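Appendix B, example 12.
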Amino acid sequence: MAKSKKQARKRIPIKSIIAAITAAIIAILSGIIININIENGKTNATITYSPQELPAYLVDDQGEVIETTEYDGEEIPTVEEVDGGMFEDENTGYSVTDGEYEDLGWSETYDVSSPEAFRNDTLGKCIIANNKYGAQCVSLARVFWWSYANRDVSTCGTGMAKGMMNCTEQNAGDDFLVFWGSNGIQAGDWLIFDGGQFGHVGMALGEVVNGYVALLGENQGGHKCEGYGGSATNIINISIKNLIGYYRPKAYIKPVPTPTPTPSSDIEYTYSKGDFFSKVLVKLGLDEGKLWGKDGTVKFYTKQLVEQNVLDRKGNVKIGIPFKLEKR
């Protein structure tokens, strides 16, 4: 995957350098910092940092939501937008017509038993996944799909992260659910962003709070991957303003809790020979100290007997037929 050290370095076009410096100056003057990483004459990632620092909310290994501005000793920056780099298989071009990349025998698998396990197994690593441009955001998605679904992810022939939403049926298969928009995001969802030329992709580490979500990803400001391009997996707190949609691994679907049944206030009784309704109400504790009159319990519960059709023609309660009385 790494290029030979003897290979001559490509000269970075002066126009690319001037354009990058100009963009940085304009951004600084406008109060927003742009981090531009030039590698082999290409802009691998353009990161627009927010002028405000907001805490990230992510799920820890115990399943608890934590509010933090750093993780594992590293700062979690607040980011408005990431424009990632290209994805292209080493020495093969983008892909064949159906959007599948050629498998050249690379094998990188990681722990996908939970979102937290994948985070712990990839954080700080330069994951290439046979990408010509090094540790790009799609590289991380590729190894997740390979580890979780035993198949490749596709950018639908574009080589761009945002292209992953162009062929949702192919990327989802039987292993993922597809969602459009930003409602209901949870840890483990793979978010696809527009914005810029290439877009971005990463795995959510929690829910959206105040319009931002903690995101695990590559080529989004982690340490530089020397000799490859791109940057290592890290965590950012990113705005969802450019979110297109997301993929949810079915193994990460949260079970819907079974509602606790509400105890019934109904009292069931079967009339026997010799019973009197007023005495039955006293026996069942329903008399409320006032059996007769307009608001008396006899009149109130007699209406329930009528609704259940348990009175005979003379208005007496039928013997041997169970009925229910709902306590008022």
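The radius of gyration is 32 Å. Confidence is low (pLDDT under 50) at residues 1-13, 15-43, 93-105.
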